[in-house]
Amino acid sequence: MSRLLVVDDEFRIRQIIRKYAEFEGYTVEEAVDGMQAIEICRKEEFDLIIMDVMMPELDGFSACREIRKFRSTPIIMLSARGEEYDKIHGFELGSDDYVVKPFSPKELMMRVSAVLKRANGNQNPEQKNDVFTYEGLSVDFSARIVTIDGKRIGMTPKEYELFFYMVKNKGLALTREKLISEVWGYDFFGDERTLDTHIKLLRKSLGEYSKCIVTLRGVGYRFETV
Amino acid sequence: MSRLLVVDDEFRIRQIIRKYAEFEGYTVEEAVDGMQAIEICRKEEFDLIIMDVMMPELDGFSACREIRKFRSTPIIMLSARGEEYDKIHGFELGSDDYVVKPFSPKELMMRVSAVLKRANGNQNPEQKNDVFTYEGLSVDFSARIVTIDGKRIGMTPKEYELFFYMVKNKGLALTREKLISEVWGYDFFGDERTLDTHIKLLRKSLGEYSKCIVTLRGVGYRFETV
DNA sequence: GTTATATTTGAAAAAATTATGAAAACTGCC
DNA sequence: GGCAGTTTTCATAATTTTTTCAAATATAAC
């Protein structure tokens, strides 16, 4: 089930959210301010973050902005009624929804499930913001994260570059020359078989989804989603 | 700029939304109930629909569900405070957001712009691959994929090249010399029968569509789509 | 029908391409 | 300088494709 991070300085609020969220089957972690939230996010990945706007140490907006630099986790902001200015900024920096305090826990849970549904690509399996999803595979271009069935796949820099380029050009026949010049640079003068080796590594990393990388004999490769 | 459809039975509400929306530069059309909304949507396409939940004739949910059958226009639902049940269903059937009445027009506009942004971002700038189609046969040049009745045909590199060249020059009589020099290169010095063999393989791959490859005795071949 | 010429076809050899494993070279970092 | 992780090289294996070639078949002209 999905993992949530609840960020709020008030114990009461965290407690309530945790209670409802766990009832819904989510796993919950907590942070008391933006600073702590960032730290936790660096170490772990969540499916969704619920974050208060007003917090000591580091407010929700700044934290949101910071986290977005390396994660694309959906964020629901909590703001006190009347903070119209806040709302605007919440949207501007890409939080996925916001809920006005005092909120009904039930409503919040609805939002959570809606945002998660959206994020998990229950819609058409095309790319969303900057994330590509296909079945259990998801590629977050901005965060440089590839996950398979929710589990993060560690990839080396070259693997990322090669894979990202292929995914961005999914469905197209990419020649070896094109791939090499795009990923290694037009002045690459190395061995002929280097690309093959990286395709091999990439396929290994992709596990079952290596099926998406098709060899086009005599031409190159193609990433496809059947 | 974007076109909005505002669906609400109260004139006051439509008036307010129209005023703010037009101020933001949107074009606005109105409908007074779900039935009318569906009719209008059948005829025209909008970028976003703002729809009240409680309406005479046909409520917002039913309308939403109906419209979604033939349109994927984003929908923002308006619901009266406390209609918790409504909210749930609004999300379930795929409205993109909802706003609680009484709402602040400014907030509504924020939502509108957020949803529109999301919707536009989601469009994957699908490259229009150049594809040739004839009855059940289709040739996707950029993806290097040939399908017959939806099923993919595996072809070897030479088959592809030969076939692609013939399809691109469909309807033309192609001499053996021309075909060989185009596909093999002008410096091909191989056997006379090599081309024949590849035509044979190609015809085999094409199944019923091998009828499209006509032998021009004494000359060469022609791909034709009668 | 016969004949001369051209095309089709099947099978097997030859050639080409890609996959892979292992080792070497390189990188950034203590 | 030594490590751990990456990237590249390279030889070998595995696989696929291309070509050859001879026999079979078809076609058109006579």
Key attributes of the depicted protein:
homodimer; 226 residues; alpha/beta; Rossmann fold; 5-stranded parallel beta sheet; 4-stranded antiparallel beta sheet; 8 helices; 12 strands; 23% strand; elongated; DNA-binding
Strand and helix map with partners:
The structure is a homodimer.
Chain A: E1 3-7, H1 11-23, E2 27-31, H2 34-43, E3 48-52, H3 60-70, E4 75-80, H4 84-92, E5 97-101, H5 105-119, E6 131-134, E7 137-140, E8 145-148, E9 151-153, H6 157-168, E10 174-175, H7 176-183, H8 194-206, E11 213-216, E12 220-223
Parallel strand pairs in A: 1-2, 1-3, 3-4, 4-5
Antiparallel strand pairs in A: 6-7, 7-8, 8-9, 10-12, 11-12
Chain B binds a DNA duplex (30 and 30 nucleotides) through helix 6 and helix 8.
Describe this protein's structure.
The structure is a homodimer of 226-residue chains. By secondary structure, chain A is α/β, with parallel strands linked by helices. Chain A is built from 8 helices and 12 strands. Helices cover 40% and strands 23% of the residues of chain A. The first copy, chain A, starts with a strand and ends with a strand. The A-B interface holds A 84, 87-88, 91, 97, 104, 106-107, 110, 113-114, 123, 126-129, 171-173, 216-219, 222, 224 and B 84, 87-88, 91, 97, 104, 106-107, 110, 113-114, 118, 121-122, 124, 127, 129, 142-144, 156-158. Chain B binds a DNA duplex (30 and 30 nucleotides) through α6 and α8.
